[in-house]
Amino acid sequence: MDMQLPLLDRLFAAGLLIDTGVDGLYGRSGAFEDVITRFEAVIDSLGGVDKPEAIRFPPGMNRAHFEGSGYMKSFPQLAGTIHSFCGCELDHVSLLTCMEEGKDWTGQQQATDIVLTPAACYPLYPTIAKRGALPAGGGLFDLQSYCFRHEPSKEPTRMQLFRMREYVRMGKPTDVVAFRQDWMERGTKLMESVGLPVEIDVANDPFFGRAGKMYKNNQRNQNLKFELLIPVNANAGPTACMSFNYHQDHFGKTWGLTTEDGETAHTACVGFGLERIALALFKHHGLDVNEWPAHVRQTLWG
Amino acid sequence: MDMQLPLLDRLFAAGLLIDTGVDGLYGRSGAFEDVITRFEAVIDSLGGVDKPEAIRFPPGMNRAHFEGSGYMKSFPQLAGTIHSFCGCELDHVSLLTCMEEGKDWTGQQQATDIVLTPAACYPLYPTIAKRGALPAGGGLFDLQSYCFRHEPSKEPTRMQLFRMREYVRMGKPTDVVAFRQDWMERGTKLMESVGLPVEIDVANDPFFGRAGKMYKNNQRNQNLKFELLIPVNANAGPTACMSFNYHQDHFGKTWGLTTEDGETAHTACVGFGLERIALALFKHHGLDVNEWPAHVRQTLWG
After folding, report:
1. CA distance A4 to chain B (A)
2. C-alpha angle with apex A287: A285 to A289, nearest 5 degrees?
3. Which domains does chain A have, with CATH numbers?
4. What is the pLDDT of residues B34-55, one digit of tens each?
5. Does the CB of A28 have a partner CB in chain B at under 8 Å?
6. For residue range A87-103, what is the model confidence (pLDDT) as tens digits?
7. Which residues of chain B make contact with A152, given a CB cutoff of 8 A?
8. Which residues of B touch A58 (CB under 8 A)?
9. Do B106 and A127 touch (CB under 8 A)?
10. What ipTM did this prediction achieve?
11. Mind listing the pLDDT tens digit for each residue in B187-210?
């Protein structure tokens, strides 16, 4: 294969990703999925020892919870709301006429109670708050879901629909910060065990507009978010394949999450961008998993 | 637990499903997910012998492909289009003001190029057509994805976001019909092997409006779709946990799918409603998997 081709084209040609005609929306081959399954098993073997509570939310969340999260303040351009046809038979006739004439038929679609999940942990905070105060020692949760971000791109690392695996810690600030620190070390070792070069840096999130600069400066100055970066795309900087977020009391205050002592809980999350990690593995070790280095195959397939 | 409570409330109380505040949108516990994982492994052991090509699409599909599929003619009320904020900074200020005042802020959201997948196989047909004529013997594909249907309900078997596993056969009419017949027998045996009572009947799809009655009659009179039904909800008829669809040349004509001889390909699909099957298992064998009958545990966990 022509190694000068962009990575996305090589992934299409190898059949690992499947073009759907929309940038950032791809089918995955069985081989691609197997890499993600095996990498998740390695995550399990690291994170399972802490006995997290596993919860799997679907790829959509309660719109009221989304509205309460503050996401539309920071990243309005990335969110996806789900809309449906709520009309009568006559409206349906107009809609079909509109479609036949190739006109925009989506204007009459009405917002449902569901929005696409922007990050795997967003549905978790209101769910756990509803249970009452956290138990002694706080909480630890294991999540994974498809997430949506409206940012069409030909960089395969920037998908519109992708999976995020997360661990979320809730409790006292010291416990939450220690959890994040621990995973920064675990994540680095994990990536080294599959032969990927990493660096960790403060995050560079795409906050919206001029007001967003304030959020970004705050996030960077207070070291609220770190990213584990791996070079994947040739013509861009390294790709954030994990992130380590300390939310302080943001979600605790928003949802009334409290520790057993009645203090506002602090929260942190560690996220794995599963498609990005798979892409990093294909980029560094080649598009044929059978030719990956023996130690990498050993870590993933045992 | 009070067995008189509705199944959904018992599932919430047992922690198997997690209330999100929206009917038909639930979190799943680790135990619930494990049942689905194990059931899928049993499906694999049956369907894997035919060596299908595995493809995994994300829960959204190309809107143009969705429009071409004809879904909006039959089930406009169930579809979900994805909309995003595409405005400038001033628009953002208005949007946030709207949200703060508790007004509807979704009116300015614009349709993206993506809609939620209504059935796991919808993204497949245009994808395979792009490859050119089918190879000798036709094609066989293994799919699974989250699907969306806008039908809020307190029946746990009627979720808005749920997973569908599918096998899809493309080729000559005789091969396609034989595939469907084969899976009607396999499906019946499969459900019996996990201790579930089944019947098979012609389908009863919720086609929209008066014009939809014609589609429904056509579907029933021509035996185009069968369902494998299992009693799950106490106050409703049995639940369709699998379906067996013969599309004749509908998708073949729509997407230009051809056999190696240049004939329009026929297609059929077999779908498993994974959450519905898990719910049937919990309903019939109890909410604690450790107390399920030994032969059921043996089939699922080996």
Report:
1. 24
2. 70
3. 7-80+118-301 (3.30.930.10), 82-116 (no CATH)
4. 999 999 999 999 999 999 999 9
5. yes
6. 999 999 999 999 999 99
7. 113
8. 25-27, 146, 159, 161-162
9. no
10. 0.96
11. 999 999 999 999 999 998 889 988
